[in-house]
Amino acid sequence: APRQSREINALVATGAEVAIAKDKRAGFVWVAAARRAKGARKRYTWNVEDMEPLPRFKQAADNTCDICGAACSEVLYEFRCYTRRRRGASSPEGAGGAVERRLHPFVSYISKECGRGLLGAQSELSRLREHLYKVVSEGGETALETLRELWKFASKPQKRVIQEELRHLARAEAGESQRAAELRSAEALRGPLNRSHEDT
User: Fold this and answer.
1) What DSSP letter does each residue of 43-69 carry, written as one string?
2) Please, are residues 70 and 26 in contact by the beta-carbon 8 Å criterion?
3) Residue 65's closest CA among 55, 76, 73, 54?
């Protein structure tokens, strides 16, 4: 049966919205804070081996896993989540049919073993999403060439993921309209498009 720590039990008892609660966590897709270079933008991963260990908290009582409640002899990891899409369920969509994917505000601190089960096996499409994020983060001409190659050999489901991820990442670009950002991402794959005055 699913477990949860006494600390999480206490939070649930207050009526707070606790995403990691054992009767709630299956409704979310879970990701962990990933290793990154100093000064690099924070990112999240589905890959257990790419998780970033946290420094130990000063208070010993804080070094416990939110799932099993055990005091961790090694380290904890930061976990976040976003709402899992249900088949056939309607989801809020952005421009171009892109599904909004926002991180839930709740932050969990979980051990590697419990986190491994929470993340589960990484699917082919989830690996593609993570690869796209890394490629776009690197930027430059090499990134554009990689995107073109991915698109060239992608299956229909993979192309849907690529389009959805590029729209999602484009919305994070500051100082650029959403429509212009989406067109720029599309041009990276398909070459220059005919833009109207409204698209700039």
Assistant:
1) -EES-GGGB-BPPPPSSGGG-B-TTT-
2) no
3) 76
**pLDDT tens digits for range 145-199:** 888 888 888 888 788 888 887 877 776 554 444 445 545 555 554 454 444 444 4
**CA–CA distance, 109 with 2 (Å, rounded to integer):** 16
pTM: 0.55
Distance, CA of 83 to CA of 103 (rounded, Å): 8
Bridge partners, 28 (sequence order)? 83
**Residue in this structure with the two tokens 């961790």, named with its chain if needed:** 72
Q: Among residues 191, 192, 171, 194, which one has the least CA distance to residue 181?
A: 171
What residue type is 67 in one-letter code? I
What are phi and psi for residue 145, nearest 5 degrees? -65, -40
Helix (H) or strand (E) holding 78: strand 77-83
Q: Give per-residue burial for 30-64: e unless 16+ CB within 10 Å, then b.
A: bbbbbeeeeeeeebbbbebeebbeeeeeeeeeebb
State how far Cα 189 lies from the chain centre.
Answer: 23
Radius of gyration, CA atoms only, the chain: 19
What is d(CA 177, CA 113) in angstroms, rounded to the nearest whole number?
A: 42
